[in-house]
Amino acid sequence: MTAVLLQQVVNGVTIGLVYALIAIGLTLVFGILDVINFAHGELYMLGAFLTYGLTIGLGLPYVVALALTIGGTAVAGVVAERLTVRPLRGRHMFTVVLSTLGLSIFMQNGALFLWGPDPREIDLAWSSRPLVLGGIVITHLRLAVLATGALLIAALTWFIRRTTWGMAMRAVASNRDAAALMGIPIARVYAITFALGAGLAGVAGGLLGAMFTIEPSMGEWAVVKAFCVVIMGGMGNVPGAVLGGVMLGVAENVGAGFLPGGSSYKDGIGYAILILVLLARPQGLFGRGA
Amino acid sequence: MISGRIPGVALAAAAVLLPLALPGAYHRHVLVLAGVFTLMALGFDLVLGYVGELSLGHAAFFGIGAYTTALLTRNTGVPFPLDLLLAALVTGAFGLLIGAPSLRLKGPYFAIVTFGFAEILRLVALNWTSVTRGPMGLPDIPHAQLGPLRIDTELDYYYLVLTLIAVAILVTRRLLGSTVGQAFVAIRENEELASAVGIPTFRFKVLAFVIGMMFTGAAGSVYARYVHFVDPTALSFYYTVTVVSMVIVGGQGSIAGTILGALLFTLLPEYLRVAERARLVIFGAFLMVAIVFMPEGLRGLWQRARPVRGVRVAA
What ipTM does this complex have? Predict the structure, then answer.
């Protein structure tokens, strides 16, 4: 019983770190630009297909493919910001919701048009090799996912806390007008934020894509999960998103294993948490109040 | 506004005569769809356009209306206008249930709560198979029968939905003409100020949401009757996106703009069917371009194109 529970916790943490990677981008963009990016899930989908093309199509090693995926989706993120966010600066948040929704529909159906609806596998020779640790089985792929996720989250934290651009991002998040008056190039901060968020979402696509299958509609549920995580952590709160992601991953895996009929409502666990958190603590579980 | 310049009577007459001028059942079918969407969009705009809250779970309320009628007619044989009324009431009650806690929150939270609610409800519709039959849906919903009058052709349904649209417009007009409407607009323009001058903003927001969801539930009920069938796809996010597009591209806070948007976004995906696989690609690109180039909607474009009424430049 405890071994099963522990196994589910480990699986949950792995998935949860990937949720965190997706959610960080969403929460950064919200915290800094005041924009809810509905095309975020499609950047994640794009990352999965990029990784697929680079590994299966071109035969590159997985690590190289992931690195290139970060770069590729970061560029896509900058383009997305130019197309759907920058022209609407100063407009109401809801108009940007709609322009990013348009982009989301465009990208998802564009992918469907180009690559068809059939699920594909990022099939790596070593991915299912197991590592057994005291009754718990972890595949090599899950280990790689854990390591990559932790590494990227650490790198992002360093970037935000220690670099000049990171400081600029924090300044814009806390007071946009004052930051602009101090000479911070707001437009460039926005572009960097989108690039970071998109790059992390893209690499998350490459990671989860190797664990499950990839298809054009995969961004739809990803953005929903990311919403749950962002709300749990508090909107704009990066450490909160990391904790929220891991908590959601664990809650889903443990819930699916132990609740009666759990697996069919697995995806509902996230929404239930979402609504409970919103009603009880809308500033997020770890927020310090609005 | 458009409705102010062209008498409403003329527009109403055009709406009544339009299907008679169209050849074939297909075009009439598209008109029924446009009517159902218009009713849904009017309900949505009452919330977005007048109290400034964005619901991203609109399809859920449409689905509640559709499932209410489906379950009532299949299991109890409730006669026609009663199931429509009950569908509207049940949907309104769900609006109260969701709106009462979530409309207290400031910021984009209402949008996210409604979004989560719609997804949960879709999962319930999919998995509660003993009641909803899950993905197989509920078939054989009977046609409406009103006394000797049997509502079963496209034309009949068109007039039914047109009647409901007229009711919705009248209700909206009456509301907006009263102090309630003034309170709505005050809340939309500046919620803090409205609340500071003593307007119970929360209560008015809930009121707008409940009434708007009743329109939407009625639209769902008529739709279920019209297609004889309801399944969990009625609750899909695609419908929400379509209605949000209608209202924002048409012009929020305007009955005429909403109707224009509803027509545009019913006809566009329908006639884009010729493009087959590229249909939604074009739809997405269109939505993006439409918002970026006219963020205030078609109505904003119309107002910019002509000089402000009553202002004359001295010669």
Answer: 0.85
